[in-house]
Amino acid sequence: MDREELLKREDEAWLESLKVFAALPPGRRDVEGVVPGWSAHDLVWHCAFWTGYAGDVLERLQRGEPAEVEDVSEAEILTAGRGMGWDEIIMQAEQNRERARAALSAFGDPPEEAVEWFTDDTFDHYKEHAAEIHTFNTS
Questions:
Q1: What is d(CA 133, CA 33) in angstroms, rounded to the nearest whole number?
Q2: Vertex 68 angle, CA 67 and 72, to 5°
């Protein structure tokens, strides 16, 4: 898949995710149970965080540095997200996805490692968790 197709798929998946998020009543955003122990708020932040992380990795790869995957605790990610409001996590998600998109765009022909990071931590991730939120919201 070339860079333009990756960017297109990310944009489409994000727009679909935003529709799912918008359909969720505000009173259900913090209700646990979308997946065990996690709310929609948690999952949206989780996606936002990992999109930003992928942006970091892509920037390192662009500079010719190793990905240097850090050990990141999901508990720490959740704690940080739970300290943020809904609008704040949506704004951070938007900023992180723009950074990941810019980092991918900096490659003429993205290497496979960059493609994998971008795919896994943007559109595949959005789709996975948006589907869970949709199911939660319609059950």
A1: 10
A2: 115
